C-alpha cells in the first residue's frame, strides 16, 4: 500500500477592511435630522451651573468660611479646648471692654457690647481660629478723639447711665457721645466692606516691619498717657488734639501734688500682680492645667469687694466706674 503525502500550505489571509462612507454633519444639521431637542433643566440646576461657571460659588464659600469648617468640626477633639479658650477670652474682655470704652469717651457698658457682638459676626466671616476679636486700644483712642470733638458734654459720659435719663441734659442742637460713635463706626464699617469688595487687604503687605513697629510703639505711648490721670487719680483740664501726649505729661507734672496716692497704690499693686501672673504664674499653670488663672476676673472681683466694703470712694476719694446695667 502506497501512501500519498499531501502538503497543506498555510497562507496568511488578507486583513479585513471596512470602508465607511458617511455624511459630514454640522451640529445644527445633526440635531435637525435626528429631531434632537435640548432637555429642559430645572431652574435650580441652571442657577447652579451659572454660579459654577462664573466662580461665584467658590467666592461665596471663601467669603463665609463657616460653611467650610463647620461641617468638618470635630466636637470630641476640639469642643473642650474651644470652651476653655472662649471662657478665658471672655474673662479678659470684661475689664478690657470697660476700660477701652472709657478711652472712647462712652459709658463702660458699651465696651461690654463691643466685646460681645463682634465675636458673633467673626464666627461667620472669620478665617482664623486663633484671633481674639473685640475692643482695641488704639481704635478706641482714635474714636474717643472724634467723640470729644463732636459730642456734647463728653466728660459727663462717666457720670450718668446710658440706659436711663439720669444726669445733666445734653445741649440742644448737638449730639450725644453714643450718636457720634455710632455714626463713626457705621461709616468705618461701610468703608471696610468696600475695601473687602476691592480686595485691598493685599495693600497691608506693602507696609514694612519698621513702619508697623513704629506705629505700635507710638500707640502704646498714647494709651499710657491717656491712662496716667486715672492711675494717679489726677483730674486734668480739657486738652487740645495736637501734641496731646506732651501736654498731658506737662499737666500731670504740674498737678502731681494733687495726686491720689491711694489710687496710685491700687494701680501699682494691680499692675504688679498681673505682670507677675503673665511672667511666672501663667507658664507654671500652663504645664499642669489647661485652664489658666483668670487673673483679670479675680482683679475685678477683689477690687469690687474692696471698694464696697472698704468705702474707698467715701474715705479716699477713689473714682468709681459706677452702675453697670444688667440684662
UniProtKB/TrEMBL annotation:
Its main location: membrane. The chain crosses the membrane at residues 79-103, 109-125, 180-198, 261-281. It is a multi-pass membrane protein. InterPro entries: SLC26A/SulP_dom, SLC26A/SulP_fam. Coiled coil: none annotated. Pfam families: Sulfate_transp. Residues 79-327 form the SLC26A/SulP transporter domain. It is found in: Membrane. It comes from the Eukaryota. One of its GO terms (biological process) is transmembrane transport. Keywords: Membrane, Transmembrane, Transmembrane helix. GO terms for cellular component: membrane. This is SLC26A/SulP transporter domain-containing protein. The lineage of its organism: Eukaryota, Metazoa, Ecdysozoa, Arthropoda, Hexapoda.
